Amino acid sequence: MSELPHCPMCNSAYTYEDGGLLVCPECAHEWSKDAEAAVDDDAPVVKDANGNRLADGDSVTVIKDLKVKGSSLVVKVGTKVRNIRLVEGDHNIDCRIDGIGPMKLKSEFVRKA
User: Protein YjdM N-terminal domain: which residues (predicted)?
Assistant: First the structure.
């Protein structure tokens, strides 16, 4: 017998299948089986300058010269940034750039590599 997932609303273990849906008898929540494979709702949806969806661990390329605030350094066009992390806020990419250090970038100034 296959193990069914817990209810995403009330975390009940008593879910059952009804056709193409999974149903929780305790809170009457219904959801599709395909919803389990979808991206979780807690993760922020971040898109690059071309509209491609970004995820944690992606590599991106800077598409515009960016001045580093409080410094005379500049992040040049074409700089490749590896292993990004997505965060909430105005600057929604947290990363580390070689030669500069830890930085926060806006997704509108990068494209997926």
Answer: 3-32
